[in-house]
Design brief:
Helix 2 links the parallel strand 3 and strand 4. This protein is of the alpha/beta class. The chain is globular and about 50 Å long. The strands form two sheets. A six-stranded mixed β-sheet has the order 3-4-7-6-8-9. Strands 1-10-5-2 form a four-stranded mixed β-sheet, with helices on one face. The longest helix is centred in the N-terminal third of the chain and has 14 residues. Helices cover about 25% and strands about 20% of the residues. The structure holds zinc ion (ZN). Zinc ion binds next to loops. The site of zinc ion has 7 residues, from loops.
């Protein structure tokens, strides 16, 4: 069984807007604090390694091998590995932290509007397939909910024309990211666990929409 965990904003050492378990090294917090917070998480989960990525709303997938890990933090928005004890972390503050597992591989995926429209979820499923393995379970972590994720009417039209499951109502023009993700996973017969927490509504999580300058929490999966 894979191990799955979603952090909150509690339990770290960062101060101010980043209080306290900020895991993002790109949001203005001190790197010493972020490194210490990541180590707190790694130890709490008893992982030999905890791998992060430099996320940029791309649809790039990085496969972690022991060789690759020692060299760099990958520029990607999805991580995959078949190494035991290697935790894969996806950082978020409103976007969807999506975790996937087959018998022998796990993946952590950063799913925002841009990545979703670019097909990052389907791309990760293809990566599993190319390794002759099929994910059977998925976890959708805390993210901005369909009541809170308002976008411009133009953006709403473009996104919902391309992906109808994103639609809520023309009057509020909010996007339902989780509905579209569930649609893709259901088509692939993947069992879904959705924690149903809204990052923008719960003060237990960082939310970029709510706070602007803020930290990042994470979804972590390992074999
Ligand atoms: Zn909400």
């Amino acid at each position: 069984m894979p191990r799955v965990f979603f952090s909150s904003r509690h339990g770290g050492i960062s101060n101010g807007a980043y209080t306290s378990l900020n895991l993002g090294d790109h949001v203005g917090d001190s790197l010493e604090s972020v490194t210490a917070n990541r180590e707190v998480l790694r130890k709490a989960l008893s992982l030999s390694h905890l791998v992060f990525m430099n996320q940029s709303h791309s649809s790039d997938v990085s496969v972690i091998t022991e060789d690759a890990y020692s060299i760099h933090t990958p520029n990607a928005d999805a991580l995959m590995t078949n190494l035991r004890g290697f935790g894969l972390a996806v950082m978020v503050a409103d976007c969807v932290p999506l975790l996937l597992a087959s018998e022998s591989w796990v993946a952590a995926v950063h799913v925002g509007r841009v990545g979703l429209l670019d097909g990052i979820v389907e791309k990760v499923l293809v990566e599993f397939e190319s390794r002759s393995t099929t994910p059977s379970r998925a976890w959708i972590g805390p993210h901005i909910c369909a009541d809170c994720y308002e976008v411009s009417p133009e953006m709403y039209k473009t996104a919902t024309t391309e992906r109808p499951q994103l639609a809520t109502s023309e009057s509020t023009h909010c996007l339902n990211l989780a509905a579209e993700i569930r649609e893709i996973l259901n088509r692939a017969n993947i069992a879904i666990t959705d924690v149903h927490s809204c990052a923008a509504e719960s003060t237990d999580y960082f939310s970029y929409r709510r706070d602007g300058v803020t930290g990042r929490f994470a979804g972590v999966i390992s074999l």
